[in-house]
C-alpha cells in the first residue's frame, strides 16, 4: 500500500504542475497529461496487488489518495468516484 501512496503522490503532483502551467498559458492547448495517467494506473495496480479487500496498514490512506487522483481528473462523469468511495467506506 505504501507504493500506491507514492504513485498517488506522483500523480497528484504531476496533475497540479500541469494545471499550474495551463493556468499561466490559458490560450495554449495542452495535450492530455499522460504522465499522471500512468502514475494513476500504477497506483491502481499496486492497490489491487496489495488486495485492498483485506485491510492492512495504509489501506485507507492509499484508497483515499487514489480517490483524490480520480477527482483531479476533472472529467464530467464523477460516477466512478462515488462508486469508489462506497468501496472505501465498506473496507473501513
Give your account of this protein's structure.
With 92 residues, the protein is mostly helical. The chain has one domain. 72% of the residues lie in helices and 0% in strands. The chain has helices spanning 2-24, 34-49, 59-72, 79-91. α1 packs antiparallel against α2 and α3 (59-72) runs antiparallel to α4. The protein is elongated. The mean pLDDT is 83.
Range of strand content: under 5%
The termini sit apart by 15 Å
Helix content bin: over 70%
Number of helices: 4
Q: How many E-type strands?
A: 0
Number of domains: 1
Characterize the main sheet: none
**Radius of gyration, CA atoms, in whole angstroms:** 14 Å
The helix-strand sequence is HHHH
Judged by helices, strands and strand pairing, the structural class is mainly alpha
What is the overall pLDDT average? 83
Shape: elongated
Uncertain ranges: none
Features:
92 residues; elongated; single chain; 72% helix
Record the SSE blueprint.
Elements: H1 2-24, H2 34-49, H3 59-72, H4 79-91
Helix pairs in contact: 1-2, 1-3, 2-3, 3-4
Summarize this entry quickly.
The chain is mainly alpha-helical and 92 residues long. 72% of the residues lie in helices and 0% in strands. Helix 1 (2-24) packs antiparallel against helix 2 and helix 2 runs antiparallel to helix 3.
